[in-house]
Design a protein that fits this description.
The complex is a heterodimer of chains A (203) and B (235). By secondary structure, chain A is mainly alpha-helical. Chain A folds into two domains: 116 residues, Rna Polymerase Sigma Factor, Chain: A, CATH 1.10.1740.10; 86 residues, Arc Repressor Mutant, subunit A. Chain A is built from ten helices and no strands. In chain A, helix 1 packs parallel to helix 3, helix 2 packs across helix 3 and helix 4 crosses helix 5. The longest helix of chain A has 23 residues. Chain B is an alpha+beta fold and 235 residues long. Helix content of chain B is 47%, strand content 11%. Chain B contains eight helices and six strands, in the order E-E-H-H-H-H-H-E-H-E-E-H-E-H. In chain B, strands 4-5-3-6 form a four-stranded antiparallel beta sheet. Chain B has a two-stranded antiparallel sheet with strand order 1-2. In chain B, strand 4 and strand 5 form a beta hairpin. Chain B is elongated and about 75 Å long. The chains are: A mainly alpha (203), B alpha+beta (235). At the A-B interface, helix 3, helix 4, helix 5, helix 7 and helix 8 of A face helix 1, helix 3 and helix 4 of B.
Chain lengths: 203, 235
């Protein structure tokens, strides 16, 4: 239990507790609600964090979280041990989120997936001091696919191959998305933090 | 795959295009295979561009780890709702069988009329759901799960997209839908669009058109149109 709450803290490595999660899935497949409860709480924050990067608000994020875990309940028996549990669940969440984004795009006049989120970023001088906020805004200018690769890599510590599995694309595509994302992020941040995001550094 | 240092000058700064440069983020997180970890390490010894990038990537990672979502999530409420859906599922049908999601509300912080609209939706889904459960299991659906955010697989065609005026009272909405034999099956979308289905699935186009016209006459309806491409919109 202590382990779980520790992992829930933030940005926990998805590898931590994979065995535990596999055991939870097995129990869920057998209809065990307590196991479901535990898995739900384990994933709520992780999913919420990544979904807050792609959806427009809390309601959408909540909807995707609940849909995702609802699907997990129904399909727990189909989970193959080839993947890690978190890769499998993130994949489901990713597809649910894409559906929601596309549906929103159909109804709004927005057409392409990439333009759904590419809002112009104006850097308010008063907020420049807040590098977290600035990073968030810089991330928001990236196309959603690129932003997600960053998120899966740096926040959730997924490997390149796992991200390819989650996003159902070739590994090389993941690398290319990351390459472009880093480059853009770097240019955006370099303007604001000539000394680096981490502050002054010795060269 | 090029592991040599491949630095190209660029107006925006030097860029290394070696494979190692592309793997740098996963070198930072230590999730590369051992051989690749070693290759990147060797590349870093020789490539100043990548060494500078490495420092930057460490900073980005640290910042992203710290950066908390701006909204607070309340897992308990969502958990209870999801458990309620599971209860519904197990009560109404054997597990792992397609059943339209019912009664759980889709949005948490909706305004009152919206919350009530969900109840209307639930009633509609209940009716349609009963019809569906009686149907033989379809053989074509590999992913046969059903969620609240995907429209229930009711009657092919016979759908209407509508936007209601924001201040529409629930009673009025109920009367309007009832009079036109319609139920809410999905929505509101991001743009506030509800998908309505005819309660009589075999309704013909002329009758559907008449119902759309009736909706449009209502002051509570801001927008209504037939949506026979409903399947496409929901995919």
């Amino acid at each position: 239990m202590e382990n779980i709450s520790k992992n829930l803290e933030q940005g926990d490595a998805p590898g931590a507790g994979n065995d535990l999660e596999r055991a939870l899935l097995a129990r869920i497949a057998a209809g065990d609600r307590d196991a479901f409860r535990e898995l739900y709480l384990r994933y709520h924050r992780r999913l919420g964090r990544f979904l807050s990067r792609v959806t427009r608000g809390r309601e959408d994020a909540e909807e995707v979280i609940n849909d995702t875990l609802w699907i997990v309940w129904q399909r727990a028996g189909e989970f193959r041990n080839a993947s890690r549990v978190s890769t499998w669940i993130m994949g489901i969440a990713y597809r649910r989120a894409l559906k929601l984004i596309r549906r929103a795009a159909t109804h709004a006049r927005v057409v392409s997936l990439d333009s759904v989120d590419a809002e112009p970023v104006e850097v308010d001088a008063l907020e420049v001091a807040d590098r977290q906020k600035l990073l968030g805004r810089a991330l928001a200018t990236l196309p959603v696919e690129q932003r997600l690769v960053l998120e899966f890599t740096y926040y959730l510590d997924h490997s390149c191959e796992e991200i390819a599995e989650i996003m159902e694309c070739p590994v090389n595509t993941v690398k290319t998305r990351m390459f472009h994302a880093r480059r853009k992020l770097r240019l955006l941040l370099a303007e604001e933090f000539p000394d680096g995001l981490g502050g002054r550094r010795d060269t | 795959m090029d592991w040599e240092v491949v630095v190209t000058p660029d107006i925006e700064g030097a860029v290394c295009e070696a494979e190692a440069a592309r793997l740098l983020p996963w070198y930072v997180t230590g999730t590369l295979a051992a051989t690749d970890m070693e290759r990147v390490a060797r590349h870093l010894e020789r490539c100043a561009v990548c060494r500078a990038d490495l420092a930057h990537e460490h900073d980005v990672r640290a910042a992203m780890k710290q950066d908390a979502p701006t909204v607070e999530y309340a897992p308990q409420a969502g958990l209870e709702r999801t458990l309620a859906r599971i209860d519904e599922l197990t009560r109404e049908a054997p597990p792992r069988v397609t059943v339209p999601a019912s009664r759980a509300s889709r949005r948490i912080t909706a305004t009152q009329w919206l919350a009530a609209a969900v109840v209307v939706q639930a009633i509609g889904l209940g009716v349609l759901g009963t019809a569906l459960v009686g149907r033989p299991a379809s053989s074509q659906a590999p992913a046969s799960y059903q969620t609240l955010s995907s429209p229930a697989p009711v009657a092919a065609g016979a759908r209407i997209r509508a936007v209601f005026a924001p201040a529409t009272p629930v009673d009025e909405l109920r009367t309007l839908l009832g009079a036109n034999r319609l139920a809410i099956v999905a929505g509101p979308s991001e743009a506030g669009v509800f998908t309505l289905a005819a309660l009589d699935p075999d309704v013909d186009a002329a009758h559907l058109e008449a119902r759309v016209a009736a909706l449009r006459r209502s002051p509570s309806v801001a927008f209504a149109e037939p949506a026979n491409d409903a399947a496409g919109a929901s995919r």
